[in-house]
Amino acid sequence: MNPMKEAEQKALPATRQQVGFALVPAGVLTSEWLNAYALVPRRAFLPDDIWPFDMRTGQTVHVSRAVDGRRWQEYADADVPIVTQWDDGGHQGPQPGRLPTSSASMPSVVFRMLDLLTVDEGSRVLEIGTGTGWNAALLAHRAGDDNVVSVEVDAAVAGRARGALDRFGALVEVVHGDGARGAPGHAPFDRTVATCGVREIPFAWVARTRPLGVIVAPWGAGFTGEDALVRLQVHKGGEIAQGGFVGPVEFMKLRAHRAAPIDHEAYVPLLDLPAVEESAEAASEIASGGRFGPLVFALGLRVPDCTFSAAEERDGAQPLWFYSRSDRSWACVFLREGRSARVWQHGPRRLWDEVRAGHAWWCAQGRPEWSRFGLTVGAAGEYVWLDEPGRPV
Ligand SMILES: C[S@@+](CC[C@H](N)C(=O)[O-])C[C@H]1O[C@@H](n2cnc3c(N)ncnc32)[C@H](O)[C@@H]1O
Question: What's the whole-model pTM score?
Answer without folding.
Answer: 0.93
